[in-house]
């Protein structure tokens, strides 16, 4: 786990990150015959027939330079051998506070214009590309290629391995997110509703809801078996069997993505044993993280471990190998083991190799988001799970495989939802470093 982040420690790391980024962009642009690239941060969208805007996060490649997730309608011009040129949309406005730049190392290395309009800067003569959420009409007016796949693919690949600065930011995001998880657990044990738990999480992690890298999943009881459960009940259930909390944090653009599951006072005793089993499985899988490991093989290892756990806890009567081969473990865990993590929660280039060749997930595991071999500098999530999801288990009630499942035990756990244990781990040259603090 990385040491606590301080501004004095971050500044030299950030300067080195930007210098490396300048070199990498220069090499890619020169190789593709481009004189520069214009990055658009993006803009929030209005709700239909309304004047209110949805939550916003800037384009990932724009954030790669600036770390500014909420800087909308702004432009960044990158040219080989020249200082980055940033035009910030900062109009005179008494309805909203105009954009302001932070006291961070990157500001001194950019040429900055605080613009009253959101028009892109004029491009010099040459061949340029423009990346981001821009229209074909605007790209044509600029005389720039819009989102050329070769350039986007090369820049995506450049975000796969994180710099020391990025890893430090991810570590700080993890520390702040874990403070929220601790407070959420206490609120759950004190009898709070899902909304109370979410508010405790936000308060302890020091963030507003619109700043989250993704909407927190706060599932009490059976709601924990809805993988992307999207509501917050304001009234606590009469029985408190379980809590699944998937909550993150964003620091200088970089995302934490942590999940924890806890037993409640009304939980079946078997549920606590399953949490212990999934936690132990996750630790075993993390221990296998080294450069060169095939992440698809790790995912398969998760299912082998799930088969063993289901058999040990009496949820299946067949062998662990049969539980895997007959698809039973997939019914108990339909998602992938994890994904790449960075400026986006599901970060770019997870399903291609270093040359841009597509690496599709296995046919039996279409939800797996990371299919490449691990390399030093990658940051990945490790999140095995075990859920009681009626619609996935229902097909097994009829047929030979149904005899392998102990339906009485399943029914006892039906209102407990599920379990997911998720940490964020950086791959080092000799192994790994877990960025997620202990509880």
Automatic annotation (TrEMBL):
Domain of life: Bacteria
Any one biological process term the GO annotation gives: proteolysis
Catalytic activity: Xaa-L-Pro dipeptide + H2O = an L-alpha-amino acid + L-proline
This enzyme's EC code(s): 3.4.13.9
Residues noted as binding Mn(2+) 2 in the record, renumbered to the chain: 246, 257, 422
Keyword vocabulary terms for this entry: Dipeptidase, Hydrolase, Manganese, Metal-binding, Metalloprotease, Protease
Cofactor remark from the record: Binds 2 manganese ions per subunit.
GO MF annotation: an example: aminopeptidase activity
GO CC annotation, single: cytosol
InterPro entries found in the cross-reference section: Creatin/AminoP/Spt16_N, Creatinase/aminopeptidase-like, PepQ_N, Pept_M24, Peptidase_M24B_aminopep-P_CS, X-Pro_dipept-like, X_Pro_dipept
Domain Peptidase M24: 169-428
Amino acids binding Mn(2+) 1: 257, 339, 383, 422
All copies of domain Xaa-Pro dipeptidase N-terminal, residue ranges: 15-155
Co-factor(s): Mn(2+)
Pfam families per the UniProt record, alphabetical: PepQ_N (PF21216), Peptidase_M24 (PF00557)
Enzyme class, spelled out: hydrolase
General function of this protein: Splits dipeptides with a prolyl residue in the C-terminal position.
Family to which the UniProt record says this protein belongs: Belongs to the peptidase M24B family. Bacterial-type prolidase subfamily.
Protein name per its UniProtKB record: Xaa-Pro dipeptidase
Gene source species: Halomonas ventosae
Record lineage: Bacteria, Pseudomonadati, Pseudomonadota, Gammaproteobacteria, Oceanospirillales
Name of the gene: pepQ
């Amino acid at each position: 786990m990385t040491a606590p982040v301080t501004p004095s420690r971050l500044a030299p790391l950030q300067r080195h990150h930007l210098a490396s980024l300048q070199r990498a962009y220069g090499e890619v642009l020169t190789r593709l015959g481009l004189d520069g690239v214009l990055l658009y941060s993006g803009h929030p969208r209005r709700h239909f027939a309304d004047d209110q805007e949805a939550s916003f996060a800037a384009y990932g490649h724009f954030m790669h330079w600036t770390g500014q997730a909420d800087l909308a309608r702004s432009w960044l011009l990158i040219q080989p051998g020249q200082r980055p040129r940033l035009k910030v949309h900062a109009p005179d406005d008494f309805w909203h506070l105009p954009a302001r730049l932070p006291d961070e190392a990157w500001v001194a290395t950019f040429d900055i214009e605080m613009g009253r309009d959101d028009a892109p800067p004029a491009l010099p003569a040459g061949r340029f590309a423009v990346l981001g959420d821009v229209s074909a009409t605007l790209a044509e007016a600029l005389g720039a290629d819009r989102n050329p796949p070769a350039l986007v693919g090369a820049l995506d690949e450049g975000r796969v391995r994180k710099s020391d600065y990025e890893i430090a930011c991810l570590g700080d995001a993890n520390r702040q997110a874990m403070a929220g998880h601790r407070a959420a657990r206490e609120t759950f044990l004190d009898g709070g509703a899902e909304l109370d738990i979410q508010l405790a999480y936000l308060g302890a992690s020091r963030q507003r809801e619109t700043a989250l890298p993704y909407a927190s999943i706060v599932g009490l009881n059976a709601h924990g078996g809805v993988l992307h459960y999207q509501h917050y009940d304001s009234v606590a259930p009469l029985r408190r069997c379980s809590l699944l909390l998937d909550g993150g944090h964003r620091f200088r653009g970089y995302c934490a993505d942590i999940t924890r599951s806890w037993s409640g006072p009304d939980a079946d005793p078997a549920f606590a044993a399953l949490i212990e089993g999934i936690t132990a499985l996750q630790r075993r899988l993390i221990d296998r993280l080294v450069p060169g490991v095939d992440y698809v093989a790790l995912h398969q290892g998760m299912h082998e471990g799930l088969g063993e756990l289901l058999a040990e806890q009496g949820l299946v009567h067949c062998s662990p190998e049969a539980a895997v081969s007959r698809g039973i473990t997939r019914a108990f865990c339909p998602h992938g083991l994890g994904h790449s993590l960075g400026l986006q929660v599901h970060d770019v280039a997870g399903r291609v190799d270093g040359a841009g060749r597509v690496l599709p997930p296995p046919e039996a595991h279409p939800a797996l988001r990371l299919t490449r071999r691990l390399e030093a500098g990658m940051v990945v999530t490790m999140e095995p799970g075990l859920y009681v999801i009626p619609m996935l288990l229902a097909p097994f009630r009829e047929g030979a495989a149904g005899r392998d499942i102990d339906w009485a035990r399943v029914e006892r756990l039906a209102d407990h939802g599920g379990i997911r244990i998720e940490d964020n781990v950086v791959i080092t040259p000799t192994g790994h470093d877990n960025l997620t603090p202990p509880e």
